[in-house]
Each structure stands twice: as C-alpha cells, then as structure tokens.
Amino acid sequence: MQLLMSHLAQFSSLSKQGELLCTQGLAYLLQNPDARKSFGDHISKAVGRTIDADLTWRAEARQKDGARPDLEGRTADGKRVVKIEAKLGAAFGEGQLRSYLGDLQDSSDRGMLLVLVPQYRVAAMKLSVPSASALTQDGPWQRGATPELPVAVIDWEGVLAALSDVRSEPFLSDLAQFEAMYRVLNGYDIEPLRSVSELLAWRERKEVFVNLVDRVTRRLARQGPVLPMGKDSDDYQRRYVCLPLGTEQPCFSVGVRDPFVGYTTPIWLRFHRRTPKFSVIRERLVACGLSQRLTECDGHVWIHLDVPLNADGESLVGSLVEQAQRVIEVAYQPL
Length: 335
What we know:
Helices cover 39% and strands 19% of the residues. A 6-stranded mixed beta sheet has the order 1-2-3-4-6-5, sandwiched between helices. Strands 7-8-9-10-12-11 form a 6-stranded antiparallel beta sheet, with helices on one face. A hairpin with an 8-residue loop joins strand 8 and strand 9. It is elongated and about 70 Å long.
C-alpha cells in the first residue's frame, strides 16, 4: 500500500514546497538521539572531521543578515558549527553560501558548510559550489586560506542510508514515510497515470513533472554543463541543453507547458528559432519521419514527448530520454 505522504507529495499543494518539506522532515527525524549519532558519523566520514554526535538541529534558523540556512547544527552552548543548504532541483540563491560561511566564521573557529542534494546532482554540484562560494581546491573545499571551514557536497541517498541504521520504532516508520515522500518529490516514484484525464490534470502534480524534466535534461546533457531551469512568458518551464553541431552549439529545451490543441502531453522539446543552425535543424526534422510530431508556433519548432500511462518514475524518465534522443540523432547529424 502506498504511504499517505508519498501519495500527497505528488500534488501541487505539497510538491511545490518539496525542499521545505524535506528540510523540516529531516529536522524532525534528527530529534531522535540515535539518528543524530548516525547522521553525525555520516557527516564526519564525508568531511574527514569528527563532529559532535549530539548537536541540536534547527530548520530555517535566521542569521544576523536575515538569511536562513535549511538546517543548522548547534552545540549545547549554542555555538553554530554546521550549516546545511539542502536542494532537490533548485539552484543556489545569490550569495547564499558566502552568507552562511560568514555567519559560521562569526560563531565558530571550527565550523563546516554542507550542500545536500540528490545523488544524481552531486557531480554537477561539486563543479558549481566553489564558484558559488568563492572557494578553492577540490572538495571538501576550503574558504581561502582558512582550513577550519570546510565545505562539502553530500547526497540525500547517503543520509537516508545512514539513518536506516537506527532500528527502533516509531523512528523506522517515520523514516519510511520520509523516504517515500523524498522519492516522489524527486520523480523517482510517481503514482502511475491511469488515464488521459489524469494526464490532462497534470498541473495538480506540476512539480513532479518539473522534476522529471530536470532528470531527463541532466541525462541528455551528456556529462556537460547543466544549465539552470527557467520559465518563459507562456509558462513553459524548461531547461536548455546545448550540443555541438559543426562549429556551432545549437540548444534545445525540454519543459512542461499546457499541451497544444489536439495533444495531451505536458512535456515538450523545443528548438528556439534563434538558436544557431535552426534552419538546418528544422529542415532535417521536417524531412525525416519525425515531421508528423512537429508543431510550429511563433517560429519555433515544438516536438511532443509522450508520457506513457501506467509507468513508474524510472520508466517515465527512460521513455522521455529515448524519445528526445531520437530527435537529437536527426537534428545533430554531422554537417
């Protein structure tokens, strides 16, 4: 039977607050002393420094500058020693990490900053964290010449595995609920869509579809740089992927929007009319067997990506990636 929270997490009233839900959920789990110890041991291994196993963890604690790290670990005397910025699919806010490091410097001579992301984002995040926080060297990174304030990237999956070492009730039941919710919010476990009418009601679970787009575009980027998600004026929430074609690097986007007339899928691949080699790509798509999948609007070329019914999260991602790759093979043939 599907757990209640994992079911509710698929709907916009909860899923649009996914990162907040995960942050507050983790803070709740860390009220358990055995969970705090397992979590502390996990962090210690990741960063290479032993931390207090019985820190008090607070969610959204306000700093002097008004910023609010997702989680903050404090010692018994109130010293702030660990700050955690937890992400699912979102990017950093401007100056977030620098703000947290500055507050740690004011509070402790041996603090640490952790960035907590899904496992599939770890590699990309390790590339972006140093530039986002003015750090140097390979991770765990250090702020300038101050080795007492390391910054490291850890993943949710590793944290969940560490917490599963706690073998008591009701903690294990709470952890199961939390993990099920986390997997849904990341698009891993989606309650299968049973009918076209459920698909047409996609906005009730919009953030789940956005997370699907996030995972699909990361695969399509082929280990290259991953651009941030964005939104166009027509409420098309998308990410661009840029791949080489001759000496140019045309981009396409995959995103969610209301279906064009006659279609049911909310997931669309688009070549913008201003992308390099657009006319070449358009001619190739029209000339091949994909022509019947094309929709042209405002000069752009749109291709629908069908969302299969009765499929779980992994199957959905695999199907969407496969459909997009068929388009890529045509559009990016060597000149």
